[in-house]
Amino acid sequence: MQTGDSTEHSAESQQPVPSTRQWLIEVARREISERGFTGVSMRSITARANVDPSLVRHYFGSKQNLLMQAMSVSLDTDELVAEALRGTPAGVGRRTVKMLLALCDSPGTSARTLVGFSAPLSSPEHTDFGDAAYLGGLFGQIAAQVSPDRPELRASLVTAQMMALIIGRYLVHDPVMAGVGQQDLIRIVGRSVQEFLTGPLPEEDGDDAPGASGGDAAGLGAGQHFVAS
Questions:
Q1: In the chain, fewer beta carbons within 10 Å around the N or the C end?
Q2: How far is CA 45 from the centre of its chain?
Q3: CA 91 to chain centroid
Q4: C-alpha of 199 from chain center
C-alpha cells in the first residue's frame, strides 16, 4: 500500500501547474469572452485570478500587453480543415458546423475561441488578433476542395452563416439559439453550409433579369432558407 500511495503522490506532483503568467492569460481570455475587450479591467482580471495587480506589470508591462497576449489565439487550421474534409463531400456541411461548435463548447478551447470571435466585434481595430480574422481562410480551404465553382464567394457565405451562429448562440446568448441542441444545429445549419459549399449558385446576371427575383415571396423564401435550413 505504501508503494502504491507513494506512486500516486509522485504522479500528482508531476501534474503540470500553470505558471502565474499563463494563469493571467487564461483569466484574461475568460474576462474578454464574458465582458468584451473594452469591458475588461486590470482589477477584474487580478481579482478573478486572485493575484496582486503588480504581477500584471511584472509579467506583461501593462494591461494592454496582457490583453494582446490573451487575444493571440492560434488554432491548427490544417487539422481543422482535414477534420471537415474527412468523409464524403455530401457531409462536409455538417462536419464543418460540428467542428466549429466543438471549438466553442469544449472546455479546453471555448474561452480561447470565443475571445477570438468577440474581441474584433467589441474592438474593431484589433480584428487581426481574433479567430474571426482568418475564418474566411479556413472555409476558403474547405471550399477549394469541395466547391464546383466560385470558392471565394462560397467561403464568404459560409463565414457569414457561421458568424451568425456564433454571435447568436455564444455572444448574444439568444435564448432560442442557446436552447437548441448541438446535434440539431449540426443538422439544420449544416444543411445551409452544405448548400453554400456544393449547391448550385444562381446565374451571375440573373438578378438583373425582369422578374428574376420572383417578387417579395421569393426574396422572403431565400431569407428563410438562410436562417432556418
A1: N
A2: 23
A3: 20
A4: 24
Domain edges within the chain: 2-71, 77-198
**pLDDT single digits (tens) 54-89:** 999 999 888 877 877 776 656 678 888 999 999 999
Asked if CATH classification 3.40.50.300 holds for the domain at 77-198, the reply, yes or no, is no
Instruction: Let me know: does 192 contact 229? Beta carbons within 8 Å.
Output: yes
**How far is the C-alpha of 202 from the C-alpha of 210, rounded, in Å?**
15
* Run of H or E residues at 215: helix 215-228
**DSSP three-state, residue 119:** helix
Q: Which CATH architecture has domain 2-71?
A: Orthogonal Bundle (1.10)
Tell me the C-alpha to C-alpha distance, in Å, between residue 44 and each of 58, 61, 108, 170, 190. 17, 17, 22, 21, 38
- Does the predicted model carry a pTM greater than 0.85? no
Sign of the alpha-carbon torsion through 110, 183, 156, 172: negative
Residue with cell 492569460: 25
